[in-house]
Each structure stands twice: as structure tokens, then as C-alpha cells.
Amino acid sequence: MNAIASSMARGACPALDAPMLTGDGYLSRVALIEAISPAQVIALFSLSVKHGNGMLDISARGNLQIRGLTLGSAAKLEADVRALDLPLREGLAVEWSPLAGLEDGIDPRPLGLAIMDHARALRGRLAPKLSVVLETNGLLRLDDLLADIRLVATGETGWNVFLGGTLKTGRAIGFVRDENAADCVAALLDHFASLGLRARGRQIEPATLPQDVLRHLEPVKTHVSQPQQNVFGLFAVGQAYNALRVALPFGQINARALAEFARQAEDFSIESIRPAPDHSLVAFGDEKACANLHGVAEQVGLIVQADDPLRQIDACPGSPSCNSARLETHALGRFAASETPGLFDESLRLHLSGCAKGCVHPTPSPLALVGSENGSHLVFCGKTTDTPIKQLAPGHAKAALRALARLIETSRRDGETNHDCLVRLGPGGIVAALGEGP
Ligand code: SF4
Questions:
Q1: pLDDT higher than 80, residue 224
Q2: Is the CB of 62 under 6 A from ligand 1?
Q3: 321 and 425 together in one domain
Q4: What's the CA-to-centroid distance between 70 and ligand 1, angstroms?
Q5: Which among 39, 270, 360, 393 could bridge 316 via Cys, Cβ 3.0 to 4.6 Å?
Q6: pLDDT tens for residues 28-45?
Q7: Residue 117 located in a structural domain
């Protein structure tokens, strides 16, 4: 096992060989580059019960995380996972659609593997959280994932290259032809390595890029991106496959429930399963097998409806799972989904964080309820560490959510989203609706 990722450090990135300390013990990440069989899924889940606390995450980026480990059990987990001979992604995080190779259009995997191959020679010289995203504009998009280097396919001939941010916020630096794409990204990675372990895409000035990168770049190609679809539930992939995409509430579930899902998948002759972005899982098989598995998914507690409010809530493990937590985030999230569904119109994500560390959503959220010494506090359009607009006394979080839902119901104008409504009302209007006192 490599040096342990520093304790609960913001810049650390857990891996199978570098577990990270969290509020409920060490966490190891199992990143896969291909789907695996239901039998392999069952084996993996039973390892999380054997070595960890039996709780599993699928992260926003679609990585499986095993929780509740000790340093000793993490080492045993690593050995046991390697013995399963899974298609593990090691080293640099190069990410592409979980549907790659099955749907029509460009297959990003050969390029991704070439980039990972080059990155192996730079091991230990790149920022631990550095990532490369290859976007092929398919049924399941990665537009919202942060990426240090993002390549966006523009038809069959090549890729627009972006540095830092999401698709919306990244800076386009040029277009690279398909045959030069691997060399271009390799030169970019060499440049990152030359700048040291802290170099990230958002900091690189395009004007300072070396000739080794620039010689591959042409002016950015105009490309009209199709609207993001992000399929969910049952759908067809390409000519030959059907699939089922479901999600884990708050990105977390008991391994036994997921093992039951995989066992039934095996009985229905589902071919393969893989974790996917946005805390989801995709199963591949024929139409009947996928339809049968849809019913099982609901029974074991997975989210099966695209518009389920739970999909619009980010919540860390919170209390009682995490020792640092001051808020029962999952109970509060379930309350919000069932009692205040009017809050969730897809414009307004709610972040419930057990403490100010903000593990599951380090970037700003429209609304964040954060556990604190004296109850909780509400942050509007900010990070969990930003100045709150309102302190809430212990036990007042549910009342605050109800007041927010009422405020939106009574104040939203025609054509306005919930988010736009709260932005128009501003912190003053929101605080007034929450009433006096902590
Ligand atoms: S954000 Fe949540 S999971 Fe992270 S340390 Fe705080 S309470 Fe624990």
C-alpha cells in the first residue's frame, strides 16, 4: 500500500492503494473502466461487509467507495479486490461515458487508455485529483463534472480541448484532430508535471502553453452540442443493448441491499453492471431482464424515477455515521423529499452537510443546511464554509425547510424557477420568511 492519503485532507484523493480517513473510518475507492458481471459485483460487495462497515458509496463521478475501514482492513481489502481481477482504473482519472462502446458514435476508450498509459510514466508528479474527461455527447453526459483537461468530440474528426471547470466554465484552448489527440493530452500532462504537484487545469494560462501542446491545436471548432439528456430508468443503448439506470439515495447504500440487487440481476441474466456518474448504477441486458430488475431496484431502496426529489439532494453520511456530524442528514433529506417536494424543480439542489467540511459537495450549492455546534445554519448560493444567512436552533431544520417551500409556493412568478425565485428574493427575503431568532 502506498503512503496513506493525508487525514481528511481536502487535496487528498482516495484510491484502493491509498485509503482516505473520513468521519467513519478509512475509505477506499474502487474505480472501474468497464462494466463487471453480477457475480463480480456480489463478490465486491461482500468484501465491503468483510473488511468495512458494509456501507457503500457511488460518488458523483461514478466511483465505488467502500467505507468504514481500518488501515489494516484496507490493506486486506486491496489484496482481495486485486484477486477478483477486475478492470480497475489505476493512476490518473480518465473518465468517459459508462455507455462507451455500446452506443452509436465515437468510442472514447482507445484514446482514454492511451492517455492513462502515458500518465503512468508521470506517477507521483501530477496533482492527486487531476482528471481528464472525454465527452462524446451521448445518452449519458459528463458536462457537469469538473475536469482539468476536457476533450469534447466534434463529429468524427476531432475534439475541442478545454482546461479546468465544467463544460460551461472550462476555457477552450483549441481543436485537436483525432489522430493527434493522445499526443496533445500527453504534452499537456507533461506540462502539468513540469509545474509541480499543485498544478491544476483552472490555473494554467493558455498563453503560457508550451510548443509541444500548441503544435497540435487548431482554432476551436464550432460545435452545436445536443441538449444534455442523461437517461434514467429503462432505455435502449445502440442497436443491441437495453439498460437500466438507477441511483443510490444520497449516493450511499447498504452493501447487502446492493448484493441482493446483483443476485437478482444474475438470476435475470443481466450481462453486466457498472457504477455511473451522479451516484448511479447502470445494468446491461435484454429488455425483459432490465424491466424485471427495475422492480427489484425499487424493493432494495434504489431510486428508480428520474424526477424523484431525492436525486436533487446531496447529503453526506452525517449523524450518526460520521463522528464529526452535527446533523442527521439522511433523515432530514428523506423528510425534505417527502414533506417539501415543492422545493425540488431541478433548479434548486439542496446540500445537507453534517459539518462545515462539506465532503460530498465542496463546491457552492444554491441551498446548504450545515450542522454546527449550536444546531445548524443555512448557506445561500455558497459553500458550506461560507458565511451563513441564518443560524437555526437544534431541531429547527425541518421547520426551515417547510418555510422555504412555503416561500417558494407563495412567491414564485410565472415562468420563474425555484432557484430564480430565491435569487430574486435574496438573503433578506429568505431570512424574513424563516422568522425571528435562531
Ligand atoms: S461533511 Fe459530513 S461526512 Fe464529512 S466530516 Fe462532516 S459530517 Fe462527516
A1: no
A2: no
A3: yes
A4: 18
A5: 360
A6: 999 999 999 999 999 999
A7: yes
